[in-house]
Automatic annotation (TrEMBL):
Its EC number is 1.5.3.2. Keywords: FAD, Flavoprotein, Oxidoreductase. It comes from Hamadaea flava. Its cofactor is FAD. It is an enzyme of class 1 (oxidoreductase). This is N-methyl-L-tryptophan oxidase. The gene is solA.
Length: 369
């Protein structure tokens, strides 16, 4: 009987399986698909990584560790996973995007610069902020390549001895006198001493006690002229016009820009998957960009990519035990991918009764009771 089963081998589950196997544990990972794929939150080529974290200063200790772990993965494999670009958090000074980034930077002594509108335009002429807007420049920011990262981590997990079962859907799980039992869609069962559940968009079905919702998101890509390469154009998050948008410099010839939350969110079922981009669905994004990043707004559209966000009511993660034998990782709310290796490390700790060196109260599953 294996020591640990990992349900879900996408972002967090792949890292948990690798960390456990690298520590010498007998681990079996299960996924209904073969990650990376287009049915989760990780699709789309790039994800922002940043340190001055507007979502809360409590994330910064995890960020420091996750930067270290991404670097270790790159050294171990020779695969480039992180591209440094710097990053801007833009908006009015009292906006959560700006004030939250400043709070995290000041509490933790992070490297940053506070730029007024004139300084933004001088340093980054692609941006056209309003006179009352500012930006927090995060010198540590950049972007990750999620599909490459997941493939790399799963390869490391197999080489470390993990057994990975793809095309195998889990229906339910239960605890037994000896450990845990997982029922699979083909009628078979898996048993182990411990269980990690990292199911992405399938979390509402497997973790029904948690108030999770799954929403469709669409990322949009553009082909602008010069000036948008990583060396000259930063990753960015901008709160303006009642919306928060984000963008990533050119990767494989395309620049990403999209809304973090669209004006009319769409709840979806993970089994059905997110509907592909619809004709002209990029037009609201283009209209939002036009006064702010006109060089991008006027660029040819290169297409869109759908993905699923699994959200919690407070948009903070769920990481922690739900019983003595079961640990969950879910509800990463559209800002989790940068944390993949540190979450994998935390899950491995929790599944083996080690104490993670972080305050995880913000992420406790019991906060919703």
């Amino acid at each position: 009987m294996p020591e640990v089963i990992v349900l879900g081998l996408g972002s967090m589950g792949s890292a948990a399986a690798y960390t456990l196997a690298a520590r010498g544990l007998d681990v079996v990972g299960v996924d209904r698909f073969t990650p990376p794929h287009e049915r989760g939150a990780h699709a789309g080529g790039t994800r922002i990584i940043r340190m001055t974290y507007a979502e809360g200063a409590a994330y910064v200790p995890l960020l420091r560790r996750t930067y270290q772990l991404w670097a270790e993965l790159e050294r171990a494999t020779g695969v480039r996973l992180v591209t440094p670009t710097g990053g801007l958090n833009l908006g009015r000074p009292d906006s959560p995007t700006v004030s939250g980034a400043l709070t995290s930077a000041r509490e933790h002594g992070l490297a940053y610069e506070l730029l007024d509108a004139d300084a933004i335009r001088r340093r980054f002429p692609q941006f056209h902020p309003a006179e009352d807007e500012v930006a927090v420049l995060d010198t540590a920011a950049g972007f990750l390549t999620p599909e490459i990262a997941i493939s790399t981590i799963l390869g490391l997990a197999e080489r470390a001895g993990a057994t990975l079962r793809f095309g195998t859907a889990a229906v339910s799980y239960s605890e037994t006198l000896a450990g845990v039992s997982v029922s699979l869609a083909d009628g078979s069962r898996l048993e182990a001493e411990r269980l990690i559940v990292a199911p992405g968009g399938w979390a509402p079905g497997l973790l029904g006690a948690l108030p999770l919702r799954v929403e469709r998101r669409v990322q949009h890509f553009w082909r602008p002229g010069p000036g948008f390469a990583p060396a000259e154009f930063p990753a960015w998050i901008w709160e303006a016009g009642g919306l928060t948008a984000y963008g990533v410099p050119a990767y494989e010839g395309q620049v990403k820009a999209a809304f973090h939350a669209p004006p009319r969110p769409e709840t979806v079922d993970a089994d059905a998957g997110a509907e592909p981009p619809r004709p002209d669905e990029e037009l609201p994004v283009r209209d939002w960009l036009r006064p702010r990043l006109p060089g991008l707004a006027d660029a040819p559209y290169a297409g869109g990519k759908q993905c699923l966000y699994t959200l919690t009511p407070d948009e903070n993660f769920v990481i922690g035990p739900v019983s003595d034998r079961v640990t969950v990782a879910a509800g990463f709310s559209g800002h989790g991918f940068k944390f993949v290796p540190v979450v994998g490390e935390i899950l491995a700790d929790l599944a083996t009764d080690a104490v993670p060196p972080f305050d995880l109260a913000l992420f406790s599953p019991s906060r919703f009771r």
